[in-house]
Structure formats: structure tokens, C-alpha cells
């Protein structure tokens, strides 16, 4: 019988859908916790795609694509007026 | 303040040797989508699943005009074309150049490491040699002891010679003193005898002895003339 892991320590992909609410509530939302989460995310991405011997194009292009998508989302309310049809 | 109850160095982690960098980064397909996404959808939808998803998503965005086609789209299309063309054409060269820079850095670091190891190796050998040299110190001390013994011997003999010379000088002095004394006594005695004899010769005896001498001389001269 494997040792039961606390819900707090499970990873996101192992959380069942019903437990998602509780799991989200148990996360650390203090400024220190958010900073730690951002640092961890950055480290994961950096060590996987950029800090390698023969890095490729994907490392930076994914960041740029994400930036393009984010900036489109932020400027959607402005772009909305260029729509060709009124009803979709 | 150091809390001595806190355990120190309980884990096995150590900073060296640092694990080497992985050779290649995570796989990315078409430069935009990580390979994990395709693997995630493969069991349920096979190989074409993600592409179908992409096409459907694109059509949905276009038809609902969540993505609006305006002047920016035209600009983006031109820019992307140029960028993709440039990447396809010059990509491998740039990659080779970057790899060469990396190689040079690695080679110089490796050379430094090897040089340091070499220096330490020679230092170890020198140290061993010194240790071997130390073993010969018994010979050194024997030689020194011999030297000192010789010096002592020489000194002793010198002093012995000096003693002998001094004693001889003193004895010679005594001998010379005795000789001198005897000689003086002899001389004195001879002189006294001569003086007394001369005194005892009276004038009468002197005349007689002189006349006798003249007669003898005449006789001798006659015999000498005869011989010639």
C-alpha cells in the first residue's frame, strides 16, 4: 500500500478534477509564495529549453509566441472594432 | 549565534562535480509547440490529433472573429515570411558558429583544469622525491661524524707534537748547559796550566832552551843541505 501523499504536496497533473478547488485553495498565495512559484516556473523553463549545450530555436520562439498572444489578448477590445461582420 | 542543536551537513548533496549540461533541450515541433503536447494527445487521437485540433481551433477563431483579420495580419504575414526564410537559410551556420564558441570555451576550461592537475601531479612527485631524500640523512650524519673525528684526531696530534717539541727544547737546554760548563772548566784549566808553566820557565832555562834550539836547527839545516 503506497504511503498516502497529502493533497497539499501532489502535483497539478495528479490532482483529480473534484479536488481541484481544495487544491487551489491550499496553495501559497503570499507574496513570497507567488515569487517562489514564478521562480520555479522560470527555472523549469530555463533549464529545459535554454540552459543546454545545443539549444534550438524553440527556446526563445515559444516565449515570443506567448508574448504575441498575450499582447493580442490585451489589445482585443481595441481590435474588436475592425471586425468585418457584426453577427457571427 | 550558532544553534548547535541544528543538524549540519545531513544530506549527501555536494556542489562538485557539477552534472554536465544536457545535450539538447526539450523537443519543440515547428518551433512553437513542445513535443509533450503531441505525446499527450497521441494515445487518444493518434498522430493527426493535434493537427486536427490546431485546424479546428484556427477555424473557430477566424469564423467567430476572435482573431480579426486586419492590416496587422498582412504585416504579420510579411514579417513572418521573411523571418522564416532567414532562419531556414542561415540557421545552421549560426548554430555552427555558436557551437564553435562554446567548444573554444570548453577547450580552454579543460586545458586549465588539465594544467592544474599536471602541476599538482608534478608537485606530488617532487614531494615524494624529497621524502626519499630525507631517508639518506643517516649517511649525511655519518660523514659529518667522520669529519669531526678527523678534526679531533688532527688536533690531538698537533698538541702531542707541541708537547714533544717543548720537552725536547728544555732537555736540549740542559744538555747545552752541561756542555758549556765542562768546556768552560776545560778552558780555564788549560789556561791555568799554561800560565803556571810559563811562570815556571826561569830566564836561565829560557837561554839554555834557545841555545839548544839553535844547535838543533843548524844540524837540521846541514842534513837538509846534504839531502838536496
Automatic annotation (TrEMBL), chain A:
Coiled-coil intervals, chain numbering: none
Subcellular location: Mitochondrion inner membrane
Keywords carried by this UniProt record: Acetylation, ATP synthesis, CF(0), Hydrogen ion transport, Ion transport, Membrane, Mitochondrion, Mitochondrion inner membrane, Phosphoprotein, Transmembrane, Transmembrane helix, Transport
Gene Ontology molecular function: any one: proton-transporting ATP synthase activity, rotational mechanism
Record bears the keyword Phosphoprotein: yes
GO cellular-component term (any): proton-transporting ATP synthase complex
Membrane topology: Single-pass membrane protein
Entry's transmembrane regions: 56-76
Any Gene Ontology biological process: proton motive force-driven mitochondrial ATP synthesis
Primary location: mitochondrion
Quaternary structure and interacting proteins, as annotated: Component of the ATP synthase complex composed at least of ATP5F1A/subunit alpha, ATP5F1B/subunit beta, ATP5MC1/subunit c (homooctomer), MT-ATP6/subunit a, MT-ATP8/subunit 8, ATP5ME/subunit e, ATP5MF/subunit f, ATP5MG/subunit g, ATP5MK/subunit k, ATP5MJ/subunit j, ATP5F1C/subunit gamma, ATP5F1D/subunit delta, ATP5F1E/subunit epsilon, ATP5PF/subunit F6, ATP5PB/subunit b, ATP5PD/subunit d, ATP5PO/subunit OSCP.
PANTHER family: ATP SYNTHASE F CHAIN, MITOCHONDRIAL-RELATED, ATP SYNTHASE SUBUNIT F, MITOCHONDRIAL
Main function: Subunit f, of the mitochondrial membrane ATP synthase complex (F(1)F(0) ATP synthase or Complex V) that produces ATP from ADP in the presence of a proton gradient across the membrane which is generated by electron transport complexes of the respiratory chain. ATP synthase complex consist of a soluble F(1) head domain - the catalytic core - and a membrane F(1) domain - the membrane proton channel. These two domains are linked by a central stalk rotating inside the F(1) region and a stationary peripheral stalk.
Similarity annotation: Belongs to the ATPase F chain family.
Protein name: ATP synthase F(0) complex subunit f, mitochondrial
Organism whose genome encodes this protein: Pomatostomus ruficeps (Chestnut-crowned babbler)
Automatic annotation (TrEMBL), chain B:
Record keywords, A-Z: CF(0), Hydrogen ion transport, Ion transport, Membrane, Mitochondrion, Mitochondrion inner membrane, Transport
Chain positions covered by the region annotation Disordered: 1-22
Location within or outside the cell: Mitochondrion; Mitochondrion inner membrane
Molecular functions per Gene Ontology: proton-transporting ATP synthase activity, rotational mechanism
Record-linked InterPro entries: ATP_synth_Bsub_B/MI25, ATP_synth_F0_suB
SUPFAM superfamilies from the UniProt entry: ATP synthase B chain-like
Keyword RNA-binding on entry: no
GO CC, one annotated term: proton-transporting ATP synthase complex
Subunit (UniProt): F-type ATPases have 2 components, CF(1) - the catalytic core - and CF(0) - the membrane proton channel. CF(1) and CF(0) have multiple subunits.
Protein purpose: Subunit b, of the mitochondrial membrane ATP synthase complex (F(1)F(0) ATP synthase or Complex V) that produces ATP from ADP in the presence of a proton gradient across the membrane which is generated by electron transport complexes of the respiratory chain. ATP synthase complex consist of a soluble F(1) head domain - the catalytic core - and a membrane F(1) domain - the membrane proton channel. These two domains are linked by a central stalk rotating inside the F(1) region and a stationary peripheral stalk.
Record-stated family: Belongs to the eukaryotic ATPase B chain family.
Descriptive protein name: ATP synthase subunit b
